[in-house]
């Protein structure tokens, strides 16, 4: 069994700007992606179009041999002028983090209303608003669902603004995005199609399954898989792959993030095949997202080949998603 | 400010039977307890009255200078005859673990109905049934609530059986126990009065806050504190203190359990004072539980003294609850 499809667009990835970047960059093509949207919560953050442009150059110097769509981080200090300038420099999206809910979000937003002039500039520049959709300070199991009111408010205020609700984890988020027009979409990660909170804090505590938003209930996972099976074009793939060194995960206060990029398409082919929805894979990973971001076809293709692949226990000092497990699909570049 | 009260009865503690036992034993008096109910999920488990008796001797050899009430572990292999013999040897309780939900529960129970002959023998021997109340295989946030039906069924079948629903974490469990007669009671741990799931998997993942049942919602924590504030005699203190070496917590698959024994009463005095319910402390820690287990007054007393105490980062290779934090009450034996 072989499946030849366009290479993946990973429309949400963390490549960082430190000793982890080489591994993170290397993993992209190994996992079958040829285009990525690189998140701006590096340290320091990417605040301007110039920062984003420099970051793309940095990634290329680190070996990135794939297309990089850039982002800037929307912070309380972001101005409409910064948006206009970033758009002029080709930045694809502005990413907004809620204050304090995940890695490097100490400069995140708590007053969404105060960001409206920024959103207005984004709508005018046709820049995508990328949202980490959790309410700061809300209980961890409710934070995404409580954010959905905010999503509806932003959409009502800026009906033309293109919005991505990133890495959704709940049935409620699926239903909210489904209820909105096609300029409001969602990304779904590999791991949220696969794990639930039981895999994070079931009988043991498993930091390599911890990410934000955290995986939720079996019914939520089911809703995510169902909307992908349906082939709804408002839901597409973004890995949220985040490289954290083992010591930063396995400690008293471990970081949020799952490193799924190196076996991204191998895992998804395995997962989609198990759920008998392999024909939906290419649209999810390589079409709907590109259409939303108005990208031309990449022209690159990968072959997914039915044969066992053992995911290693570590990958350059990072524990990858599915470490030590066997996937049933391998990947080759054509 | 000083508070002189009877020393604590810790009616749920894990002292283990290995290199951690010395520290676990030493912590008991340091935390203000003079009597404990020692849990039987050692390795190997305490299956019989003879096992329990030997274990008490072992603990004394490890330096235990406090009264030890013993337990046996109820397993699919437990017989009514084993109950009768254990009762004859003075075992206080039979502890039942659901299959696979926590540390050393691989030999736990999944078919509760099959245990009824054992419960019958316990009722006849007046031995306490101690329940880890989670349904095996249920979603982690629902497992305790789903068990409450089972609790009601067991109580209906054995209305005279004395039952402890251990380390409850939910408003639903509070309401269930409150609705039942005074032979069905609950223990509440130190940590469940203090933390929620946000302290386990909020913006970071914190294995030293991970226990089973896992801490739940703010509304659940509120219900636990409210029932203690009310001074309801069916709710009393059991720390569920469990010593796990740092390496067994801070890894890819960390153990469940929080080591709160060494600062047990110092923490509770601090917590009760902050909630302005210090007058309820002695009943919760040193009276209601003893009455349920029909223990005479211990005759021992402790003094809780209002002065700052810094909880160390580690305690004999174990991270204690509240590590690195300052409590506002110290403790002295009288």
From TrEMBL, chains A, B:
Active site: 240
InterPro entries documented for this protein: DHOdimr, Dihydroorotase_CS, Metal_Hydrolase
Known cofactor(s): Zn(2+)
Cofactor descriptive note: Binds 2 Zn(2+) ions per subunit.
GO biological process: 'de novo' pyrimidine nucleobase biosynthetic process; 'de novo' UMP biosynthetic process
E.C. number(s) listed in UniProt: 3.5.2.3
Record pathway: Pyrimidine metabolism; UMP biosynthesis via de novo pathway; (S)-dihydroorotate from bicarbonate: step 3/3
Chain residues that bind substrate: 14-16, 41, 132, 244, 256
Signal peptide positions on this chain: none
Enzymatic reactions: (S)-dihydroorotate + H2O = N-carbamoyl-L-aspartate + H(+)
UniProt modified residues of type N6-carboxylysine: 95
Classification via PROSITE patterns: DIHYDROOROTASE_2
GO terms, molecular function: dihydroorotase activity; zinc ion binding
Residues that hold Zn(2+) 2 according to the record: 95, 132, 167
Protein keywords: Hydrolase, Metal-binding, Pyrimidine biosynthesis, Zinc
GO cellular component terms attached to this protein's record: cytoplasm
Binding site for Zn(2+) 1: 12, 14, 95, 240
Task of the protein: Catalyzes the reversible cyclization of carbamoyl aspartate to dihydroorotate.
Quaternary context: Homodimer.
Family per similarity comment: Belongs to the metallo-dependent hydrolases superfamily. DHOase family. Class II DHOase subfamily.
Name assigned to this protein: Dihydroorotase
Gene behind the chain: pyrC
């Amino acid at each position: 069994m072989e499946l030849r499809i366009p290479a993946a667009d990973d429309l949400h990835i963390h490549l960082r700007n430190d000793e982890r970047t080489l591994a993170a960059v290397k993993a992209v093509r190994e996992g079958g992606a040829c285009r990525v949207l690189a998140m701006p919560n590096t340290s320091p953050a990417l605040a301007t179009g110039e920062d984003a442009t420099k970051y793309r150059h940095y990634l290329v110097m680190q070996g990135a041999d794939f297309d990089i769509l850039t982002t800037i981080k929307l912070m309380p200090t972001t101005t409409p002028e910064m948006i206009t300038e970033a758009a002029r420099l080709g930045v694809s999206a502005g990413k907004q983090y809620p204050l304090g809910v995940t890695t490097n979000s100490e400069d995140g937003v708590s007053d969404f209303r105060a960001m409206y002039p920024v959103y207005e500039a984004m709508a005018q520049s046709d820049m995508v608003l990328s949202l980490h959709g959790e309410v700061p300070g809300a209980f961890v199991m409710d934070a995404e669902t409580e954010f959905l009111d905010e999503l509806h408010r932003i959409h009502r205020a800026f009906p033309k603004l293109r919005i991505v609700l990133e890495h959704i984890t709940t049935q409620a988020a699926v239903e909210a995005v489904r209820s909105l027009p096609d300029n409001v979409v969602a990304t779904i990660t590999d791991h949220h199609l696969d794990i639930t909170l039981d895999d994070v804090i079931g009988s043991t505590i498993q930091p390599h399954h911890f990410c934000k938003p955290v995986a939720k209930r079996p019914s939520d996972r089911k809703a995510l898989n169902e909307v992908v099976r349906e082939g709804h074009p408002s839901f597409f793939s973004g890995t949220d792959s985040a490289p954290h060194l083992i010591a930063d995960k396995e400690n008293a206060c471990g970081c949020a993030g799952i490193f799924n990029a190196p076996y991204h398409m191998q895992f998804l082919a395995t997962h989609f095949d198990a759920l008998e929805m392999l024909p939906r894979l290419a649209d999810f990973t390589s079409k709907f997202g590109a259409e939303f971001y108005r990208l031309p076809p990449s022209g690159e293709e990968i072959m997914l080949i039915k044969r066992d692949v053992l995911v290693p226990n570590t990958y350059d000092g990072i524990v990858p998603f599915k470490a030590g497990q066997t996937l049933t699909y391998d990947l080759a570049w054509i």
